[in-house]
Every structure is written in C-alpha cells, then in structure tokens.
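Teaching assistant here, posting this on the class forum so everyone can see the example we discussed in section. The complex has two components, and the goal was to see what a joint structure prediction looks like when all of them are supplied at once.
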Amino acid sequence: MPIDKFVKLESTCVPVPIENVDTDQIIPARFLKATTREGFGDNLFADWRYDKSGNPKKDFVLNDPTYSGKILVAGQNFGSGSSREHAAWAIAGYGFKAVVSSFFADIFKNNSLNNGLLPVQVSKEFLEELFQAIEKDPATKVEIDLENQKITLQPNGPSESFDINPYKKKCMLNGFDDIDYLLNISNEIETWEKANS
Amino acid sequence: MVTKVDGGPSVLYIDRHFVHEVTSPQAFAGLRDRGIQVRKPEKTVATADHNIPTLKQDQPIQDELSRFQVNKLALNCEEFGVPLYGLNHKWNGIVHVIGPELGITKPGMTIVCGDSHTSTHGAFGSIAFGIGTSEVEMVLATQTLLQNKPKTMRINIDGELGKGVVSKDIVLYIISQIGTGGATGYFVEFAGSAIRNLSMEARMTICNMSIEMGARGGMIAPDETTFEYIKGREFAPKGAEWDKAVEEWRQLPSDADAAFDKELVFKASDIEPMITYGTNPGMGIGISKSIPTFEEIEKSTQATFKKSMQYMDFEPGDAMIGKKVDYVFIGSCTNGRIEDLRAFAAFVKGKKKADNITAWIVPGSHQVEAQAEEEGIRQILEEAGFEMRQPGCSACLAMNDDKIPEGNYAVSTSNRNFEGRQGPGARTMLASPLTAAATAITGKITDPRDFL
C-alpha cells in the first residue's frame, strides 16, 4: 500500500527524555495479537501510559495536555529490541509523523521508513537543546524539511542537517512503497532465479 | 543480489523465508489486497510459536485473540500454499529451533523472518536477519528484499572457557562490554578459538543474541561441526547432492586476511557465569560481582541505570548472589534446545527443586521434547520436582498465559529483560541454563560453579 508522503513538517513536540526505549515499551507483546494494522495508536506506550486498571498515569507525557504535536522527541537508542513493526504503527497511529533522537536501532528505523514515519537522527547536543527548549516552552515548534534534510528549532534556530538513505528519501517524498518497486522488476527476479536454480 | 537501485539499496534474493503467526497476518492481508500470490511458497516455511499455550495443546486455545491469530495463520497458509508446521504438528516448535533441526537452515543462504532473533541461523554461516511485517509482505510477494549493505564487525573470543561457563555467558559478556547499541549498523562475525570449540547449539545461542547488541545479524563461519550437525536431517541434501553441497560450503568462510570495518577481541578466560541485573541485556555482570555503584556508571547511561534500579528494586552495589528468586524459565530460541535441557537435567539430577521456585521448562520444539523423553530427561526432571511443558515461545515474551506475575523475580534463559517483557511488572534476570539450574535448586541466585 502507498505510504503517506512526507515533505515538510512544522509542529510542536512531545518529549520522552528516556534513553534506550525498546519496542516492548512502545507496544507490549500482548497487543501483537491483532491481525490488522489498525488501533495500535491506542496502545502506544501502554504500560507507561496506563495503570493496571486502565487509568491514565498522570506523570506520563502522553497524558499531559501541556505537550502535544506530531513530532516525538526521544532519548538515545530509540526502538531497540524486537523487530515488531507494530511499534512504528503505534507511533504513527497515535498521530506522530516523525521521531527525533540521537540514535535509532536499525530494524525500528527501517520499519518507520517503510511506514512513512520519518526517523530524524540528530547530534547529542542538538537533542539536548531540543529537550531544553521544549521544557522551557512546551509550545516550541520544530520544522523538519525532508527535501533539504534539515531540522530547525523555531523561530530562530539552531538548525542541523540529518542523513537519510537517498532511496528512502525519494520514497517518502513521493509516497512510494518498496513492494511496488519490486513488483515492477518481476522479470529481473525471474531471470535471476533461472540463472541461479 | 538480483540488482541494485541506482544510488540506493540492493535487491537481495531470499533463499528461505520463515513465517510465524504474529508478524504475518497483515502481510498476507496485503497480498490479498493486491490480488497477488506468494511468489515462492516452496521457499517459505511457517510455524505457530509465539501465541500458543505450553500446556494442553490438544485443546482449543483459551485466549480468544490468540486462538484467532493462530487460526489466521492456518487459513493464510492454506490459501497461499505455504507449508505450515502448526500447533500439534510433529515438527512444530519455535521458528529458530525448527529451521536448523529440520536441516532447512544451511550455510550461505539468505534467511529472513518477521522476528529479530532470526540472527540465530547465522550460526550456520548464513546471512540471516529479522524484518518487519511490511518486509514480510515484500518477501512473500517478490522473494526479494531491498537492503543496504551494512558495515562489518568481527568479534573474536579466544582461549578456553572456564568450568561452568557456557555460550550464553559469552554473549551476555560481550553485550555487557559493548552495550545494546554497540553493533548497530554492523553485521557481526563471531570468530576465535572459543567459538570454534562450540557445538552448533551453543553457537546458535550466541548468534541469537546478536540483535541485543544492535547488530543487523550475527554469523559464524561453517566448519566440520556445522556439516556434521546438518547431515542426515530431514531437509538436508542427501547422497551425491550432500557431497556437492559440503564442497560449496567449504568455500564460504571469510579469507584469513579479510578486512572488517571494526574488530574486537575478548578473552574467554575473562568470562564467568553471567547474570543481568537491569532492564536491558547489556546490564549484566559476572555472577560473583556486585551491581555497579552510581559513580561507576558512565554518565550517558546513568538515567537508564536509575530507572532500572527502581524497576528491579535493587540497590547499586548489591551482590547478585543470594538474591531471592520466584520463577525459573528454561526455554526460548536462545536456550530451548536439547543440549540446554540435557545440561539442566544433568545439573538437577538427584537434587530437588527449591520450594519457593515455580519452574517452567519449555522445550523448543516437539522434536526436542521427544528427544528429551527418549533420553529420560522428563523423568529426571519430574523426580527433581520439575515439569516439562510443551513447545512454544512461552515466557520469553509472555504472549500466552506463561506470564511472570508483577513484582516477581525470574531467572530466565531467554534473551530480553526489558521492563514488562515477561509480564507487566515482571523482573527478569537473564542467565545460562546452568545458572538457572543452580538457582532453581537453592531458590536464590547461585553460582553454578559451586556445584561443579
């Protein structure tokens, strides 16, 4: 299925200043019993967000109306552990369009890109500045410009460049998905199969 | 490699695609929506492992969602012609246990599965890694995957392991040294004399946990030990085909002077039985050591350390030996094979399980279960007060009913000790089957070497 296009985003941020957030925290295993892609946003960070009885925990950021936005800002080494793509579905399903951190685990990064959720890797210093700016003013806005690969703290900076695989960038800018590309080269795959059987 | 996208990833052909019930339903649905078939059902193998109960498997699954999901896999496999070794099939088991034991996993193959522990198969010298559900759909549809070439790292472990130290301790040691992001972006090759001397199952334990150091995959070069293991297995080549295959496999190992982007060296003699104290697999120490003090922790990881201490209700500086334990879990794709059960049984033979311990001994597959039965392991376990259950992922991720209750401490031979991994509020300590056995007998964290 085609993914949502991502060109430019300006939004307020939701800070999760916790390092090593693994995918079990992002979406606990018991929610993986679903057989469709819907509804994962409701269970994002479930065990940090709700207590045993299902009541929202006051001290968790998603339950704090002061913070809202389409950009999730997280501590280093985000998305480690299980390959569950459901983690990316949960974050995107909740309404986030981008995740900013100083370090992403590989599989999670890939899963995000495959779902039109942009992982933006910044320096430790920039991340720290971002967290501080948001703490000072929860209404702080950030602009993410995919075409120019730039992330800018509004209104006056600073700004930092971020890396992204050129192929994935093209896919995200245009809403392309990998399967369409691969299905289009079916003949090449068949030729290879015949030569290597 | 089939081809390469200009300035982009390579198109990698996938030799074997393993499938399980949790990460496949949306992928099959995607195929259905596109109106296309599975390109190579004969290169696809499915099993039900994550969601299934480990008791009374002959009865319908109690949990409605689990039952539905396991059923969905059966329906999908039927519709798309994918071979399924489902619940109660004689070859059913944890996906990364059955692939190798059936001789499906072979050196030089590209192998993927919607499961991060797919790295396990790298122990055979295959390129094996975990993928997300969208990529599962890609492979089902096209038998290929778009992949960027990762960097390479070689981790050497030289020398001889001490008594009571096994491959699980090796991998926990490495992760404690380099951290859970230490190999991110790299494909790791494990080498060195300590690795060469390991059995295939011991090698699988190490490759299994490569993902816990952030690696894309982990592999060990195939050798005679590898070929011996595969020989004669159900899907291994036979006769003249076998000889031809072995000749090809002998050509696979990296050249002696191959260059890696990064190279690390560790001494086997530095490794003692390991135990984790925190909430990620890198937070482990030698069992005779104490939890680091706050000052000893690197500044950048202090926040994680603090959070871990709170969750586990441990104090910095605590000794691990003697800490109370409530549950012991033997199983998972890390340590759920016959050698693990043998080691556990040999350890507990003639002894008795501690009264305060609830133990779940879960074989990795029906074949492992049958072999354990044949070797008298079930009897040894029962006489010592343990019960062997039926195969499945079980308490490793507690998707089924095998959940560690909130606040309880579990010594587990699985691969992750994240908050809530084994059940909401569960407190996991990862260890080898020997350490788990020693703990199961005394009822508290115990150095297995005390008994050897």
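For the discussion questions: The mean pLDDT of chain B is 96. The longest strand of chain B covers residues 151-158. Think about how each of these relates to the inputs above.
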